[in-house]
Write a structure and sequence with these properties.
The structure is a homodimer of 333-residue chains.
Chain A: E1 2-4, H1 6-19, H2 24-39, H3 50-58, E2 69-74, E3 77-81, H4 87-105, E4 107-115, H5 122-130, E5 134-139, E6 160-164, E7 171-175, H6 182-191, E8 200-201, E9 207-208, H7 211-217, H8 226-243, H9 248-252, E10 260-267, H10 270-273, H11 275-290, H12 306-318, E11 320-322, H13 324-332
Helix pairs in contact in A: 1-2, 4-5, 6-7
Amino acid sequence: MQRVPFEILYRELHRVLIAIGLAEERAALVARLFAENQRDGVHSHGLNRFPRFVSDIQAKRIDIKASPERVGGLGGLEQWDGKMGIGVWNAKVCMGRAIELARGQGIACVGLRNTNHWMRAGAYGLQAAEEGCIGICWTNTIPLMPPWGSAEARIGNNPLAIAVPRKDGPMLLDMAMSQYSNGKLEVLRRQGGELPTAGGYDGEGNLTRSPGAILDSRRPLPIGYWKGSALAVMLDAVAALVSGGRASHQIGREGAECAVSQVFLAINAAALGGQDELNTVANAIVDDLHAAVPILEAEGVRYPGEGMLRTRRESLAAGVLVDEEQFAALRAM
Amino acid sequence: MQRVPFEILYRELHRVLIAIGLAEERAALVARLFAENQRDGVHSHGLNRFPRFVSDIQAKRIDIKASPERVGGLGGLEQWDGKMGIGVWNAKVCMGRAIELARGQGIACVGLRNTNHWMRAGAYGLQAAEEGCIGICWTNTIPLMPPWGSAEARIGNNPLAIAVPRKDGPMLLDMAMSQYSNGKLEVLRRQGGELPTAGGYDGEGNLTRSPGAILDSRRPLPIGYWKGSALAVMLDAVAALVSGGRASHQIGREGAECAVSQVFLAINAAALGGQDELNTVANAIVDDLHAAVPILEAEGVRYPGEGMLRTRRESLAAGVLVDEEQFAALRAM
């Protein structure tokens, strides 16, 4: 691993995106998103995904000119069609629209269909939090995980993000419904590491900590066994219903992950109690967590998102941590 | 265990509620809720909880005359004060309000503060589904679980329900953020059973399947370890922010679980695609799950809520399964 200034990482990404044909505004946003994911330590959805993103564009699996379009709505609930455009662009636009609607409606929900991989769920939760709203969003995926009671991968791991605005740094949950995200398993297999807890089953149906065995068997463990399986199914159902788009089982039929469905919820809680009041409530929750006696003195007890924000500060001070090979590949693009 | 006709169970509950002073409409609703929870096999939040509910009323910890009141709002987002009234009554009213708002607004969210235990989260999700809406609701609780990295119980297990309407029976997720709900642990300790998987830690910090050891150590395992811990924290934060009510750490200071905060979300997805379209999408997801090859032939793969609906049909056909002692105690009340 090496450290690279954020600006240089951003400029390299931006250069490649312009070279493959993205318009300036889109290239700037996409480059910023990839660089920010890497900056925040989300190595499963940062630089490692960029070559695949570029090849999807070159293979015309992503339409770089498409703009998401509102296709229906009632009050604070809208349906948008992503038209197989750039996933991170579509997601930014739709969370932006939910935030805008929530200013007048208190709460808003945008369902987005026919879109592509948004990379990091948390990015759009943070987008809402930066605008003073509670942000909740999730996506469905290609089938990646067996439903409880089966060994066949039929349900998505359907990452979910929940963000709460807070002056000293937002609270952020960003998690897939599998104990470890597919991205994390891929990164760890590459590094040759083992998982800290069982993360799925091997080919013989035994629980294992080997990321490779789990990727090969396609049997990652849902969080909380049957509970995470059921939560993944429900998130998929709500995403398909609200967006009018495809459910995981339909995405699976294409062979590749495309035309996924997403949900963007913004809650303008500050309209009721005011932003200062929100901040006080969030701070009190954070303070109570920090007051907990830690099991390991050195680690402390962290609020959701705290580790990410610490990594962000380190990245901005000392440079963004990148894999040498991945960064060299980017420079050579 | 014995089987009792639903109507007799309902009448016994209703009789006691009238005797302790509930007005007819409230007695009818509360009796129906408790009887339905038992009918649906939710033995952790049915008849077993009724004596505690009655004693809370007799000790005036629950104000049976209080009515929840709207204290603020913007568009589809409203704040209600439960005024320490009957938890199941307040929850029914607030989900009813969210459904009503969602008819015109597409999506609505009611935050309810100063309320009491709503018993079964799923009841209010089902309420929305029966009205053709997607229902999402959750509650915070007294601290019941340590945050990840500590052994001190500082966060709630914050049950969450998500329901999707479907003609042949709604899809329903109803789960606490601990691997096993407190109610389930209590039932199993009473029965002298062991958990099927590790459900928490014993007093020495080792993972255990003993419900008693977990209740004593107050260290239930969050679903997915750090993930369920973080999800519980975020649900608590959103509940406190949206309702303007107490967070778990504040509820804990009272010693008893009262004045909790809840969130009721209704999404009128049928307003966009129509109820038939919703049904088709939900059916396709259910069909795909049913097509999965099960690991255990006899068990099959079920959609969320399927087991509950089967229990409901059995209860209505053959009588509701009740614990003899609990039912005898009810009759003697």
